[in-house]
Amino acid sequence: MKYAKTLTDFILEEERNFKEATGSFSLLMLYIEQAAKVIASHVGRSGLVDIIGASGYKNQSNDDVQKLDIFANTALTESIRASKQAGLIASEEMESALITNEKNAKYAVFFDPLDGSSNIDVNISIGTIFSIYRMNERALQKGIKQIAAGYIIYGPSIMFVYTCENKVHGFTYDPSIGSFLLSHENIRTPEKGNIYSINEAYYNTFPQYIQKYVQYAKKTDMKLRYVGSMVSDVHRTLLKGGVFMYPQDTRSPDGKLRLMYEVNPMALIMQNAGGMAVCESSSPLLIQPTHLHERQPLLIGSTQNVKDILSFI
Ligand code: AHG
Ligand code: MN
Ligand code: MN
């Protein structure tokens, strides 16, 4: 069998390519990797341990919080804190950002601890999304300032996908050795794909250009796929091409997805894989966020598919 590089090796090797590296970024990534393994292990046993079901709380975005949301949030927060490399930690599940006491910490980390919460109880792929910035006097920075972003998908296999330095790499978990192994080096998304992904039940509330695109798609050889976990829908789009849409609609004028935890990290990953992401017509990465839990509409995927949608505006 070919020797497969572990995520840990890979992170340390990347660090050696940087003369100025102090090891701080690698350390942070290794702690995120560790939290991912802990969350993955609980997701894998979710029917057996007391982790499924609602917690009885609602979060900042008025979503029902699941027990696994809380577990994943605690696992990530504690792990990132333990790394001592983050000065600010912000999560979809926490009302305000946590300012740590690490005075010299260089990084700010934002995450959606558990994406696709409504799929937990029915054994459908879910995920975790993270985004890393350099510390700045401004807590909310534009997405373009992200120095790394990634996601973990808990599916038939568990994968850790991340982008740094304009490249996107994917690692698949091998439970027999407890490591993520490099399985998808330098992911490039197809220029065009034949899958569109949108919650079409909301069709009547969509803006006209989205309705027109959906009608157009039905006249072509395109297929529809919609998991309802953004990580899974974007992961498929990244590998197979096509487009994932969560537009604004008359119920939610800014869409549903959160800029800091979902839209920006996925936009950076897609862009660095050669794809495209837009909020209405320009890149989400250029938006100056105004609040922690702000939402933005999103069209993301193969460049040609995104351009096809924009042609209906
Ligand atoms: P979360 O579980 O982190 O709150 O995110 C759920 C999001 C996203 O994963 C998915 O794309 C979207 O909600 C699905 O929303 P609809 O049920 O409105 O289609
Ligand atoms: Mn989410
Ligand atoms: Mn979530």
Layout of strands and helices, then pairs:
Blueprint: H1 7-16, H2 24-44, E1 54-58, E2 64-66, H3 67-83, E3 86-91, E4 98-99, E5 107-115, E6 126-134, E7 148-154, E8 158-164, E9 167-174, E10 179-184, E11 195-197, H4 208-218, E12 223-224, H5 230-240, E13 243-246, H6 259-272, E14 276-278, E15 298-301, H7 303-310
Parallel strand pairs: 3-5, 11-12, 11-13
Antiparallel strand pairs: 1-2, 3-4, 5-6, 6-7, 7-8, 8-9, 9-10, 13-15, 14-15
Helix pairs in contact: 1-2, 2-3
Bound molecules: 2,5-anhydro-1,6-di-O-phosphono-D-glucitol (AHG) and manganese (II) ion (2 copies).
Residues 69, 92, 112, 114-115, 117 line the site of one manganese (II) ion.
What does this structure look like?
The protein folds into two domains: 7-184, Fructose-1,6-Bisphosphatase, subunit A, domain 1 (Fructose-1,6-Bisphosphatase, Chain A, domain 1), CATH 3.30.540; 195-310, D-Maltodextrin-Binding Protein, domain 2 (3-Layer(aba) Sandwich), CATH 3.40.190. The termini are far apart. The protein is built from seven helices and 15 strands. Helix 1 (7-16) runs antiparallel to helix 2 (24-44). The chain has helices at residues 7-16, 24-44, 67-83, 208-218, 230-240, 259-272, 303-310; strands spanning 54-58, 64-66, 86-91, 98-99, 107-115, 126-134, 148-154, 158-164, 167-174, 179-184, 195-197, 223-224, 243-246, 276-278, 298-301. The chain is α+β, with helices and mostly antiparallel strands. The strands form three sheets. Strands 4-3-5-6-7-8-9-10 form an eight-stranded mixed β-sheet, sandwiched between helices. The chain has a five-stranded mixed β-sheet with strand order 12-11-13-15-14, sandwiched between helices. A two-stranded antiparallel ribbon has the order 1-2. Bound molecules: 2,5-anhydro-1,6-di-O-phosphono-D-glucitol and manganese (II) ion (MN) (2 copies). One manganese (II) ion binds at residues 112, 115, 230, 262.
